[in-house]
């Protein structure tokens, strides 16, 4: 393989290794301005969209141990890596609704192959911050209930003591 091609494969491999996921998209028929718009949206999430040749992506994926992506590598592809996968999936879903020619082909999350339906499901998952908030609420709820019960017991004791004081006094 020529030095230029090895350099391109190394760049793609570095992107694959530096990300916990990769989404593959079909961009055929998309205007350059629309593609630049997508790149801008993804850049806000520290995410990168790159048009790649299938042969280079096949070689890079096999070097990373992501051989199972090979079935999706047909036709012109765009590769999305980096950032938080659920946020990126939401951006991609919204963009695909705006641009009918843009399609999600699938991808990989770790070593798991993602179908287009799986990417859609990822887009439906709340963001990390929302999930943390839900977890914190779940953890705090039992403590709140214990505090409420203890407070009621204390108030009951106070009422009994007040009633006993009135009776004597």
The CATH topology of the largest domain is Alpha-Beta Plaits
Helix content: 55-70%
Q: Helix count, per DSSP? A: 6
Strand order of the largest sheet: 2-3-1-4-5
The CATH architecture classification of the largest domain is 2-Layer Sandwich
The name of the CATH superfamily of the largest domain reads Ribosomal protein L10, N-terminal RNA-binding domain
Q: What profile does the largest beta sheet have? A: 5 strands, antiparallel
Mean pLDDT: 86
Number of beta strands:
5
Radius of gyration: 27 Å
Notes on the structure:
- The protein is of the alpha+beta class.
- The protein folds into 2 domains: 3-125, Ribosomal protein L10, N-terminal RNA-binding domain (Alpha-Beta Plaits, 2-Layer Sandwich); 126-169.
- 60% of the residues lie in helices and 15% in strands.
- It is built from 6 helices and 5 strands, in the order H-E-H-E-H-E-H-E-E-H-H.
- It has helices at 3-17, 32-43, 54-64, 85-98, 116-124, 128-168, and strands spanning 21-26, 48-52, 77-81, 103-109, 112-114.
- A 5-stranded antiparallel β-sheet has the order 2-3-1-4-5, sandwiched between helices.
- Strand 4 and strand 5 form a beta hairpin.
- The longest helix is centred in the C-terminal third of the chain and has 41 residues, at 128-168.
- The radius of gyration is 27 Å and the shape is elongated.
- The N and C termini lie far apart (101 Å).
- The model has no long low-confidence stretch (mean pLDDT 86).
